[in-house]
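Subject: mismatched residue count in predicted assembly?

I count 951 residues in my input, but I want to confirm that the predicted structure covers every chain. Input:
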Amino acid sequence: MSAADRARDLLGRLVRASAFERFLISASALLLSVFIGALIILGAGRMTDCSTAAYTIAVPGQFVTQFVGGGSVFAMGFCYDPFAVYDLLFLGALGDVLSNPLNSQFATTIAETTILMFTGVAVAVAFRADIFNIGVQGQLVVGALTTGVVLTFLAPPLAGLGVLATAVLLPLGLLLGGVAGGAFAAIPGALKAYADANEVITTIMLNFVATSIALFLVSREDYFKDPESFASQTVPLPDVALFPSFLFRPRDDVSVLALAFALVVLVGTWYLLQHTPFGYDLRTSGLQPDAAEYGGVDADRTIVSSMTLSGALAGVGGAVYVLMVLGNFQTGVPDYGFDGITVSILAGNNPLGVGFAAFLFGVLKSGSIVVQVGSDVPPTLVGVLRGLIILFVAMPEFFRMMGKKFGSFDRPGEPVTADGATGGGSDE
Amino acid sequence: MTQTDTAVRLEAITKRFPGVVANDEVDLPVERGSVHALLGENGAGKTTLMNVLYGLYQPNSGRIVVDGEERQFDSPRDAIDAGVGMIHQHFMLVDTMTVAENIALGNEPRKWGGLAVDREAARREVVELSERYGFDVDPDKTVAEVSVGVQQRVEILKALYRGADVLILDEPTAVLTPQEVEDLFDVLDELTDQGKTVIFITHKLGEAMQAADDITVLRDGENVGTVDADETTREELAELMVGREVVLEVESTPPSVGDTVLDVEDLSVRDDRDVPAVTDVSFAVREGEVFGVAGVDGNGQAELVEAITGLREPEAGTVEFDGEDVTDASRRERIDGGMAYIPEDRQERGLVMDFDLVENGILGSQHNAPFAAGPTIDWTAAREHAEGVVADYDVRPPNADTEAVSLSGGNQQKFIVGREFERDPRLVVATHPTRGVDIGSQEFIHDRLLELRDEGRGVFLVSSKLDEVQGLSDRLAVMHDGDVMAVVDPDEITEEELGLLMAGEYPERYEPRSERDAEGVAQ
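Triage response: the counts match. Full output below for your records.
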């Protein structure tokens, strides 16, 4: 068997892996990435100068005597301690979660997780319809912008109403974000369906359009810029329009309500895909367009509607970002949309899996900050460690997706064939 | 038969693929100068066995003896060197090169010390060779210019040119008209008269009996018997193939027809390459009748069916379904109107390979009762439906949770047929409904098709199996080159006449163009 055959075989096995096998693969990939990351930390630690070693590998004297014949203790020092780094990276994100589950470090993790759930599920929905929506970032920005701007006008008159205002403004803000994000995503959807324009290209371009429009609108006082601020941002919204911070401290910018809402959205999206005719149409056209067409699915309409749904989810994510974290719209939105792609791949494009993947991402993101603060490890190295974990965990799923899309890994040695009349292949 | 008469002897060949034993200790002695048919259903292991003999596969165990000498073939090259040639279903010819160039390709005589190809010598050798075997081929025509039957002969000549004494033909008749099949059998006779040995793979009983001297039947990868073609019967062979007694004739009672359910008027359709595939075709299918279409594959049947079912936009003409003009109606509107459709391509169209049978069972009905209950899908109803189809149509393994991809082709087909038949249709459009299906299930599908007809539904049947369309149809349209040559009474027309029509020629009884309307000669 040649190397190529072996590679095909392996890919085939990956495609056919069961849920449990996939979990094992992900878990061992995570361990392996930590192990390799530890080696990198040690290597980097040897190449750096420091007065006291943060970590020392020591071998007791008699052990060395036995093999080498020397008498002294054998020891090697390293500037960075891999155990400490990973301890900070994973557990730092959780803070002192056991004694104080509401600590601010954990709050950051939850906030990140919440936003990533929306962008992750947005990408996943499009992926399930076999559409590569790279425009989630743009859709998120448009959703956030719309929510931030419109509520600037609607919120102040209602500010006096207290809880009632929140009950009106919060759903309204989320709705605005969803509608705007959905409408913005419908553009590349329609272009793909009716003009055959590749969605990867159009969504990337529209990302720039979204960012530029946002910058234009919030950097001039004639439009929506907050006149009292030097930054490019809208007027801060009154607290009644924002997510209430029930448990966490208000200044932690996180809301359990938003997290719960995100979880509901994940489950709702899963239910939509698995249990409705629309979801059936979407999955069918994603898996096998010809069969979908045969089954009466309108391919063009499905493309537009799945893109719209994807964009709407991203837009709601943007609204949550404004209403939970920022309190107004500011330019320079972090790359939640792009991280959403990785989150979705990590989750195997399953909306329920997105929750876990987003949490891992959230942990890594807020953990990185802790590592930078709590150790001498340079931020670039932390980035490497984070990237390593994501790469390792996402790659098996990524190969699986590619293998499914491009390979034919039906039962080996038993190709299912038509008979002689068209001769699809040989019969076994 | 003595040992020295044996050209090829396969002994206890076993070939395993992951999870499957394709050949299980198969013995196959082939007498020199004979035509030996390898008969079996799809998946019986015929092609695998021949691929082993041709060096494409290496057996897990067993011996290959050619000319009394044990051989090991690591590649087809070795097999060719030992005098074994194989003609595949798909011809491996270069369309733009001439017949002679194709035959000599890769083995051209050289001149100038091996620096250049001696085309003249090559052409001379090819002419000599084709004259010796009485082949009627023009060496100077390009392959694109000659008919499929001639292309096949070119393939045979190519094998002979390379010194083959044993010729393996894989389903050689699949692409031929009945006349071309006759010609092929004459060619085979000529070859064996001159001492060549022919092994041909087929799943058609009649052909095996007509052309072969000996017939070996494979079932589930095992040799279940080698019989003398002159001393066997169709019934005996069918029983060997299936493993039980089979009723071969389709019992069809006269139809009681009702209103027109499908009316096609002056329909013209283009194919994927934008070439006219169907030109100006008109016919009507009525309730309670089976309207069949016969023709060699690729004469516009596929495009015609797609235009009727809503998968392809016609260029001109109208399609009326159940009294309504559906020419521009979407696929879903047609499904909802009661048009069931067994597609030609079951793996691309008919099933979603990654879905299990529960999910596949509602393909096409995902928006309709009883599966779409309100805004959600009732998966319990879907499961019951799928389990019903699996049980009634003998889909194996009998488990609705199986993914479509892991079913064999025949079982995939059975599931699609079941799903479409049980849709309570007004019209069934069935293309090759029994393709790849074992003989036992064919019987069931045929019976069920006639039952639907007797319930007053219209059936539009396209099949490349002549006995199938002829046996089931009440009226039969013969298509050639995108045109309906004639609509005939399948019980009256002879196979020769049918063959001529399929080849685009009119036998005396069938006047061109006068009988093309909906109320054809069957009236």
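Chain A touches chain B through 34 residues (CB under 8 Å). Marking this ticket as 'not a bug'.
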